[in-house]
Amino acid sequence: MTLKTIPAAPEARPRAQIQCDLMPLALERWNPAIKAAASDDTTITMYDPIGFDWWTGEGVTAKRVSAALRSIGDKDVTVKINSPGGDVFEGLAIYNLLREHKGKVTVQVLGLAASAASFIAMAADEVQIARAGFLMIHNSWTIGAGDRNELREIATFLEQIDGTLADIYAVKTGDKAADMAKLMDVETWMGGTAAVDAGFADSLLDSDATTEDTKAAAPHQVAARRMDTLLAKQGIPRAERRALIQELKGTPGAAPDGTRDAADHQADLAEPIADLQAALARFAAAATR
C-alpha cells in the first residue's frame, strides 16, 4: 500500500532569525560506524546529520538527495538511514522529495533515525528497521532570536510543523494525530520491535543487513563531537561552540612538522575535553548547593 497521500510538509523558514541544532541525547546515542552491508545504484545513504555537517563538510542535504533521485530516475529507491537528525527545514525538504518520487521508496533504518531523520523515514512506502535500531520522535526544536513578534512567529511556525508531523506519523501508524502529539511532547524513543509494534515501521531487517565501519568517524571528529555535546547541554549556541572548538583544534595543516594524523588531532582535544567536563561537573555541583 502506497503512502503517497501523506501530507506535504511546510519548508519555508520564518522571517525571524532561527537556527536548528542536533539534540544532545540523539548525538550521544548515535553510532556513526553502523552502515549497510550492501548497496547498489538505486540506494541513497543518509549516514550523517540532516543538513550541512560542519565536522565532515558534508551532511545529508536536500540538494544531495535531489541529485541522487534525478540520477536514479523513476525506478524504485532504497534509502538507508543512520542519522541523529538535524536541521528540521532541510529534513522537510528531503521528506517532500521522497514523498513525490514516482517509484517505490523503501527506507531501512540501520541504526538511528532520530528527530528529522524519523519523519524523513515516514515518506517511504515501506519502512524496515534493524532489531537493534532506534527511532525517536519529538516536537520541532530550535534556537531563535528576535523581538516578541518574531518569537511569536517562530512559535506559531513550529506549532504548524508539529501538527503536520503528528499527521504524518498518524497516517503511517493508523493512530490519531493527538496520540502522536503526546508522544512527541515527551520525546519518545522506540527500539526496532517497538517501532514495528507501534506501526512506525513495517518489518524488521535481517541481521546481516548492517555492518560496522570502524573508519566511519575519524577519532578527532568523535572527540570534537563529544565536546560539542557537552557545550550544547549548557545551552551555548552552535556558532559559539564551533568557534571555541576550532580555536582549540587550531588550523588543520598548520603544523610545522608535516601532515598530522587523526590521532594527533584527538590528542589535541583530549585535555580540553577533560578540563571542560571537570568544569561542568563543578558548575553542576555548585548549582545544587
From the structure above, extract its key features.
289 residues, two-stranded antiparallel sheet, single chain, seven-stranded mixed beta sheet, 10 helices, globular, alpha/beta, 2 domains
Architecture overview:
The protein is α/β, with parallel strands linked by helices. It has helices at 24-29, 62-72, 88-99, 116-121, 148-173, 177-185, 192-198, 219-233, 238-249, 262-287; strands at residues 17-20, 34-36, 43-46, 51-53, 58-60, 77-83, 105-114, 126-129, 134-137, 142-145, 188-191, 203-204, 210-212. It has 2 domains: 17-212, 2-enoyl-CoA Hydratase, Chain A, domain 1 (Alpha-Beta Complex), CATH 3.90.226; 219-287, no CATH class. Strands 3, 6, 7, 8, 9, 11 and 12 form a 7-stranded mixed β-sheet that branches. It is globular. Mean pLDDT is 81; it is low at 251-266.
- Helix and strand run: EHEEEEHEHEHEEEHHEHEEHHH
Give the CATH level 1 class of the largest domain. Answer: Alpha Beta
Question: From the 3D coordinates, which CATH architecture of the largest domain would you assign?
Answer: Alpha-Beta Complex
Structural class: alpha/beta
* Largest β-sheet summary: 7 strands, mixed
Fold-level CATH name of the largest domain = 2-enoyl-CoA Hydratase, Chain A, domain 1
Kindly estimate the percentage of residues that lie in beta strands according to DSSP: 15-25%
Kindly give the count of domains.
Answer: 2
Oligomer: single chain
CA distance, first residue to last residue: 58 Å
Compute the average pLDDT: 81
Number of strands: 13
Computed CA radius of gyration, to the nearest angstrom: 20 Å
